């Protein structure tokens, strides 16, 4: 029920996902009187779907603590997460309130043993290929243990999505030299250097421009920095797109040139379309939860559902456990107090 275009965009996105993966099944949690008529519009989807009525819906502006008190056990968001915990569903997807979703997912599913705090991983398009960046803002503040946890989680996700047994991992820093950066980043780098080969290959420090270049498969950073990096990239993409549209309409010759370059421009538009990489993965919990962008349409929900399908098929939770089991170094540092993104 969450998001600007729900529940229609959610239902339509599920229909598009089902057309590509016929063995998918859906449980829609929310207000039956709104969901049922939409399912009637998609005859192929209806037999693959179940509706679980939930009258309570978490508002987009509710604080996580308030949402947890109000919606525990009764809201559509909680019920979707509970379905994962009970084994009814492989993945829960929501376009609703991010802070509330993280709070409920953490409370219901609990962090995996050995993981200090969960993080949000994003699929990031680059010049080379898609990569994974985390944390995108689940928690503010980190220590060496949290960064090491994110390296383990991110590399497991990369193994699922990229079919790579030893994805490369880099720590985001102000420089690539070992003497640069804050102490906790350098400590995490030391630990990952010694553990390289345990389900991942540690590349070393990377800088901001390495994200767009696709230097490594997994970029690890603290949530405050990661969220700023994500919002900056999104804003830059919109800025470049606006510049390009203005340039192509500036005069008659530009318009004629744009006609000849239609196929190339369409390919660029698809590459820059944020809907094709929609879905932030909550990593480090005893279950898979995906946060869809609240403002997306059916194409974006289809992308989030495709991501969910691949993670379930590749057994993400098992791969995380395998990486943690192979990790040769135990980090005992306690995580600092951290704030959930509102």
Descriptive notes:
This protein is an alpha/beta fold and 342 residues long. It has a domain at 1-109. Helices cover 48% and strands 15% of the residues. The chain has helices at residues 8-20, 32-40, 64-71, 76-85, 98-109, 144-162, 183-195, 208-213, 223-248, 252-260, 262-272, 298-313, 316-326; strands at 26-30, 49-53, 91-94, 119-124, 131-134, 139-140, 168-172, 201-206, 218-220, 280-283, 288-291, 339-340. The longest helix is centred in the C-terminal third of the chain and has 26 residues, at 223-248. The radius of gyration is 21 Å and the shape is globular. The protein starts with 7 loop residues before the first helix and ends with a strand. Residues 332-342 have low confidence and may be disordered.
- Low-confidence parts: 332-342
Number of strands: 12
Going by helix content, strand content and strand pairing, the class is alpha/beta
Widest sheet, order of strands: 3-11-10-4-5-9-7-8
Portion of residues within helices: 40-55%
> DSSP helix count?
13
- Termini Cα gap: 18 Å
Radius of gyration: 21 Å
Proportion of β residues? 5-15%
Order of helices and strands: HEHEHHEHEEEHEHEHEHHHEEHHE
Q: Average pLDDT across residues?
A: 88
- Tertiary shape: globular
Largest sheet: 8 strands, mixed
């Amino acid at each position: 029920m969450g998001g600007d275009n729900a529940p229609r965009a959610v239902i339509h996105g599920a229909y598009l996902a089902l057309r590509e993966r016929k063995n998918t099944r859906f449980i829609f949690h929310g207000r039956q009187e709104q969901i049922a008529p939409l399912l009637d519009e998609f005859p192929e989807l209806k037999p693959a779907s179940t509706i679980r009525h939930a009258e309570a819906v978490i508002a987009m502006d509710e604080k996580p603590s308030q949402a947890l008190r109000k919606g525990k056990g009764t809201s559509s968001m909680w019920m979707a997460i509970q379905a994962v915990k009970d084994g009814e569903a492989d993945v829960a997807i929501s376009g609703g309130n991010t802070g509330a979703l993280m709070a409920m997912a953490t409370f219901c599913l609990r962090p995996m043993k050995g993981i200090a705090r969960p993080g949000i991983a994003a699929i990031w398009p680059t010049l080379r290929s898609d990569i994974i960046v985390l944390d995108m803002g689940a928690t503010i503040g980190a220590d060496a243990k949290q960064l090491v946890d994110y390296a383990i989680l991110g590399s497991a996700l990369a193994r699922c999505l990229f079919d790579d047994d030893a994805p490369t991992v880099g720590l985001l820093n102000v420089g690539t030299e070992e003497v640069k950066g804050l102490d906790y980043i350098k400590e995490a780098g030391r630990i990952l250097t010694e553990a390289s080969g345990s389900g991942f290959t540690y590349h070393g420090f990377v800088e901001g421009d390495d994200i767009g270049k696709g230097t490594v498969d997994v970029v690890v950073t603290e949530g405050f920095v990661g969220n700023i990096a994500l919002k900056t990239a999104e804003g830059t993409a919109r800025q470049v797109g606006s510049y390009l549209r203005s340039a192509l309409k500036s005069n008659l010759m530009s318009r004629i040139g744009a006609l000849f370059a239609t196929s190339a421009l369409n390919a660029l538009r698809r590459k820059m379309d944020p809907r094709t990489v929609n879905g932030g993965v909550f990593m480090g919990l005893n279950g898979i939860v995906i946060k869809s962008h609240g403002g997306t349409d059916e194409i974006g929900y289809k992308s989030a559902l495709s991501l969910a399908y691949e993670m379930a098929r590749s057994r993400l939770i098992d791969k995380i456990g395998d990486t943690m089991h192979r990790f040769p170094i135990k980090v005992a540092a306690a995580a600092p107090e951290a704030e959930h993104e509102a």
